[in-house]
Amino acid sequence: MELELRFFATFREAAGGKTVEASFADGSTVGDVLRELEDEYEGMAGRLIVDGDLAPQINVLKNGREVLHLDGLDTPLADGDRLSVFPPVAGGT
Question: What is the per-residue burial (b if ≥16 Cβ within 10 Å, else e) of 43-62?
Answer without folding.
Answer: bbeebbbeeeebbeebebbb
